[in-house]
């Protein structure tokens, strides 16, 4: 993907109103977080970079129990988790209770590829999308609440059920656990009911003070049952009635004279810290219908004639002081309108029930009740003949007043409304009608009303029962939910459109992520495969932002980065660490041996001065061995020339330094070894050539024999150098023959007689009986054993025994297939690091660890005529020996540990004949 396209996709992700996060599957560390999701994080993470931070560290603690098990499950099993409406109360003060759609799934790239381009396992990245669906859920909750309230309007106990549904809806919409519905003791419906006969002395009723009752509550203390304050400015309902608007008390301590109901704090009454008070207005009656009771209510509340009377309030409490978000306030204000209608309707339906059971109720009162209801209401007798119908139902269905007395099917036949369903919405069978009424069924259908308008109707069927439970009538209510359904359909259409848009964006995001992932993997692979350490440091805060594994190992080896045995944990710990603090822990020296402070090192010059520097340094590692480093540092600049980062490249050159030292040591040794025999030859020849000296024939013979021995010594040394070259070139020529090991070991012991005698050590040879002949090159194997035994005598303690042994090797058929020859000493032994470089040319172990020539027990230096003189190690013996053994198709092995000596062994095949 081109850079421009990647920038466009990144722009879309950063402006997308949907949260997107990419996590590393194994560690749940954040790889990517777009701006929208970043803005939702709590402080301090909202203003800090969270990339490479653990998701457990970033998200609020209340989400750990819910989200972390899902992330681990998806990372381990690949299972996709989707939750459509997850409630969250982390933004109560800003937005109230919010709802979120959360999708957790494995990254599509991880699902398609189970391998890494570098050959490593895939990291199984997780993709998380978070979408705010609060408005959609709130609309549905609001819509469902109206349905629940409408379904609870039947029966003598409709009002308590309606109030409970109101509080349940308030809890679901704003997440409040402490709320209440406060009603005037004499609201419009009850007041008129009392005027109509319950209170015979109307003047006495009007003279009573208007008080407040907590009609329904959650989280309010039981003592509130006796809380009935009069309507005044000392209570919120009185203030709301006077000001005609919602009131918010963010800190009740600022209004100490305000009378508030006590909250339940673990059984103890407690004054609320903050309160939201939303008025519940009485629904306006149809135009032209005014009542004396309404005017009386206006006078008693002090409301002006144009003010809408108040039924009560919805109050939301919090124990502590806090504000209320505007979304929460607006949502409750809209819901309060429906709650007022529901309360009014519940009370009116109760009056309908009382009117149906009490024949003394006048037709005028029933007519008023019916006309006051904004929903279409049809009363049926027990035989489903129309007993009454209100104006709203006649308007909707196009009925005239003469439908009263008609059977339900005859009346529906006269309707001029057109139902959009393919079949008639209203059941034709009385038994089915009664079944729907018994179940409290609510039908939803679309209709073109008699006025030509399109409506969406909720049709409820409610039985009317007397005190004995016998049904003596039915109520069918046509509730207009056109606006709510239209809003729902708009939301659903928007959801479909947004889903399609999100799917398209997800495709673009996946492509961008795939391209970024491939590029990142290539860069990471290149960085990890580099044989040198690479560290990227930010110039702004001097913190490490990138470090590869080789650099981590170098810092661990230097003892500056913990833990020393876990590179992965050390790598994670190094990210974000101060480079200045880290490198000041390491004491490094220049080639001259002087201490180099941090300010004079290449990285400091690159970050502070913008200079490119190279410096060779050395330090003492945690294992006590010297460690040589070649550091190169350079600054990285922005377009304006400012330094943004510094790059430090660390090359560990310890091996090269050791090899250089070994070679210097080798050439020094070789010069010394060559110089001595040449000087002897020259001295003896000069003595023979001197004209002023006369030598006897015995002396001349002795001089010539000594010169011949020194020449033979030079030839052996040169042959050793040539053998090393042949081993390196793979050009060793073997003269294979049958060899009897007892004879070879006897010859070997004769050749090493001088070495054994002068070293003050012993040689013990162990051979099994009836040992078969081996198939090998006699002289080459002899040279290998000579080298191994010479080393053993050199490093074994004085007076100790060196063991030379042969052992038969058997195949699967229990037949002898070879002979293993081993040389064992009980010397100082070797470390794992020394074993790794033991068989290299100019071995640093041989060059740096050879015993001093004056150490007790070392072979005597004096010349022994007729035998090979012992010489210090040149670093080629084991290298040549391994090449000889490998040329025989075998392997020269070594087992050793510090303080436990060493055992060298190899296996040769048995001679099978031609």
Number of domains: 5
Radius of gyration: 50 Å
The structure class reads alpha+beta
Instruction: Give the number of DSSP strands.
Output: 32
- What general outline do the C-alpha atoms trace? elongated
Strand arrangement, major sheet: 14-13-18-17-16-15
The CATH superfamily title of the largest domain: GAF domain
List the uncertain runs: 111-122, 187-202, 288-306, 844-873
Under the CATH scheme, which architecture of the largest domain would be assigned? 2-Layer Sandwich
- Give the CATH level 1 class of the largest domain: Alpha Beta
Tally of individual helices: 30
Strand content: 15-25%
Mean pLDDT: 80
Plain-language structure description:
With 914 residues, the chain is an alpha+beta fold. It folds into five domains: 3-132 and 493-525, PAS domain (Beta-Lactamase, 2-Layer Sandwich); 133-373, Beta-Lactamase (2-Layer Sandwich); 375-480, PAS domain (Beta-Lactamase, 2-Layer Sandwich), CATH 3.30.450.20; 532-651, 2-Layer Sandwich (Beta-Lactamase), CATH 3.30.450.20; 725-909, Histidine kinase-like ATPase, C-terminal domain (Heat Shock Protein 90, 2-Layer Sandwich), CATH 3.30.565. It contains 30 helices and 32 strands. Helix 13 (326-357) runs antiparallel to helix 14 (363-372). The longest helix is centred in the middle third of the chain and has 48 residues, at 482-529.
